[in-house]
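User:
I would dearly like some help making sense of a protein record. Take your time, and here it is.
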Amino acid sequence: MAQASALGPLVAVSLALLGAEYAALLQLRGGALDGRAPLEAGGLLLAGELGYWALELRLSSEPRGVPLRRAATMVALAIAAGVLAALLLLVATVPPGGGLVWDGLGVLAAAAALGLAVTAVRRTG
């Protein structure tokens, strides 16, 4: 059990390194917005979920039917993260003074992204 729990921080470090690599790539390209950012967001979330799930499976097995439901939930969370990232990217491309509707959409997308992050943390914690 100690060995599997000792590997947990390595998953977080690897995700941080992947995020830093993507940030460095964006910086080298001139810091412009990247249309592939929603795919990166969903992929990082899915990679983190799969990494921690693999560590959990080292400690115990899951009852029948749980892996399929859990995999479906992970894919749904990754898709939701991608959609929210796309919405945030869309709002970020609107010129200043886009109006109250755009401001509201930006606040809604930011709140949804925060809610998704809190849900993911609660599931792993």
